[in-house]
Design goal:
The complex is a heterodimer of chains A (263) and B (232).
Chain A lengths: L10 H20 L5 H28 L2 H22 L7 H25 L7 H32 L1 H9 L4 H4 L1 H21 L7 H8 L4 H33 L13
Chain B lengths: L6 E11 L5 E12 L4 E5 L6 H8 L7 E6 L2 E2 L5 H7 E4 L10 H11 L8 H8 L16 H14 L4 E5 L7 H18 L2 E5 L3 H7 L2 E6 L2 E7 L7
Parallel strand pairs in B: 3-8, 3-9, 6-7, 7-8
Antiparallel strand pairs in B: 1-2, 1-4, 4-5, 9-10
Classes of the chains: A mainly alpha (263), B alpha/beta (232).
The complex binds adenosine-5'-diphosphate and magnesium ion (MG).
Chain lengths: 263, 232
């Protein structure tokens, strides 16, 4: 039972809500709350960015070509890699290679699995499914990745004495750094675990809300939400695991010594 | 091959980047022989590079120039993990892993999936003045001096052929320091372990050293020679 009679949202309606937002900004200024500039900039950014995305999606949907879909996925991935790297404050050798490889493999495998084996998209590149699903997978994996990388670098620098003591006893660098690796992996998964546990109680997830709004039967929307949440968790775990396991190696030389530049 | 040094270091140089970004030569073409069954004491002022030499010998870091040999073969011919196992290092500031004293003593074995050999433990505890009643206590609850002895025992249990000790008695009271060092000096002779004792305490060094070396301005100066066979 699909209802597709979605209420149209015209320019006038859009103008109305935007007007309300501007009113709030005006009130903030009137009362000298001091947030009006940030609010204004953020609202303009949202307007421009979403309009741009809307047009890009429109073009891609109407092109309906595999290369166009793959191109947009690649752009999303590159942006995610860049944002992940930018968020890591600690020094981490070879961070682009580690983060890039992990996001590419982690998100690539899970998106493929989900779209082909679970949903069974035809055609395989159907942009209406592939782009938003990949977007959710990449977005969540990006958060996990930056936590994993950030925490790994911090743990390794905090645990330098512990690691060198273990190395001096003849342990391999990977073994010596194992506590740091485990701590980083746990940290990366915390937001995803929390989101899963709170799902449906604290908030209604965006994808499910959207599907219900556009007329999908609630239980079907719930099934979609559960499966996307599972695949997001798999992707976050896979990406973070790849980052910590590849990342930990980048802190050491093949002779199981700390790399000089980490000092 | 006079004296058959277990470790021969030739032309070792090491520079370090200082806090201000400039590079300073710590070790300047140093030669060093370490023999089994004897105590080689290395003294020198603070900052002379004593700890750096020990880290190079344990391969925690590598020299900029020069070569280390173990039993006539270059360090490069061994896996670094084998070097660290055979040339054990006890760093000055003891680090205790989470868990009990026993967990710490078993640490290296457990990480290799092996069991601690039963027979050795009591003797090693005795040499290191580690009271058996500490075994089931959390290691981090011990005083620094006690931890220093546990970390010595931990490395000794790893059965090194050469033992590198960085200021091993810095946190011990004089009596305990004497007790540990004199028993250790006997132990390495019966077990044929080469001991490198780094200290800034001249009195302690000259008391236990068979060879006494001083590190000064990046070079090693031989102060006194226990047996007179190393000069040629
Ligand atoms: N990790 C490091 N980075 C930079 N300089 C260091 C480092 N460790 C030691 N040094 C410097 O190297 C020199 C020798 O240090 P060290 O070998 O610890 O001397 P010692 O043990 O004889 O006191 C000192 O000037 C010290 O400041
Ligand atoms: Mg020192």
């Amino acid at each position: 039972m699909q209802r597709t009679d979605l209420v149209d949202l015209g320019l006038v309606d859009l103008g109305l809500v935007y007007g309300l937002l501007l009113l709030v900004i005006g009130l903030a200024r009137w009362n000298r709350f001091g947030q009006e500039k940030d609010l204004l900039i953020a609202s303009v950014r949202m307007l421009v960015q979403l309009l741009a995305v809307g047009y890009v999606l429109k073009i891609i949907f109407s092109l309906d070509r595999p290369w166009a879909v793959l191109l947009i996925l690649l752009v999303m991935l590159l942006v995610a890699i860049q944002m992940t790297v930018a968020r890591v404050r600690q020094r981490m050798p070879g961070i682009y290679r580690v983060v890039g490889g992990a996001l590419f493999l982690g998100c690539g495998c899970t998106t493929f699995l989900f779209c082909q084996l679970v949903i069974g998209l035809t055609p395989w590149y159907d942009p209406r499914y592939l782009i938003p699903l990949a977007g959710m997978i990449i977005g969540n994996s990006m958060t996990g990745s930056s936590l994993a990388a950030e925490r790994l670098a911090a743990e390794i620098s905090d645990r330098r004495e512990e690691i060198e003591t273990a190395l001096s006893l003849g342990l391999s660098s990977v073994k010596a750094a194992q506590p740091a690796v485990h701590a980083a992996f746990r940290a990366a998964l915390i937001p995803t675990v929390n989101a899963m546990a709170a799902m449906g109680i604290v908030f209604l997830p965006g994808m499910m809300t959207g599907q219900i709004l556009s007329g999908t039967e609630p239980l079907l929307a719930v099934r979609y939400q559960i499966s996307i949440m599972c695949i997001i968790t798999v992707s976050v775990a896979l990406t973070s695991a790849l980052i910590v396991w590849q990342g930990v190696r980048s802190f050491f030389t093949p002779a199981h010594q700390f790399r000089e530049e980490v000092d | 091959m006079a004296g058959a040094a277990a470790i021969a270091a030739r032309g070792i140089s090491r520079a370090r980047i200082q806090a201000d970004g400039s590079s300073r030569v710590i070790l300047d073409r140093v030669d060093l022989d370490i023999r089994r069954g004897v105590v080689t004491a290395l003294i020198g002022p603070s900052g002379a590079g004593k700890s750096t030499i020990l880290r190079l010998l344990n391969r925690l870091e590598d020299a900029d120039a020069g070569e280390f040999q173990l039993d006539g073969k270059s360090f490069e011919d061994y896996s670094p993990l084998e070097i660290r196992r055979r040339i054990g290092l006890v760093i000055q500031k003891p680090f205790m892993f989470p868990g009990t004293v026993r967990d710490n003593l078993e640490y290296a074995y457990r990480s290799r999936g092996e069991d601690l050999p039963d027979g050795k433990l009591p003797a090693v505890l005795d040499v290191c003045s580690v009271d058996p009643s500490w075994l089931d206590q959390p290691a981090r609850k011990l005083s620094v001096g006690q931890q220093q002895r546990v970390s010595l025992a931990r490395t000794l249990l790893n059965a090194p052929e050469i033992l590198l000790l960085d200021e091993p008695t810095s946190s011990l009271d004089p009596q305990t320091a004497e007790a540990v060092l004199s028993r250790l000096a006997d132990w390495i002779k019966t077990e044929n372990i080469g001991l490198v004792l780094v200290t800034h305490d001249h009195r302690l060094a000259s008391r236990y050293a068979d060879y006494l070396l001083e590190l000064r301005d990046g070079r090693i100066v031989e102060k006194r020679n226990g047996d007179d066979d190393a000069a040629d």
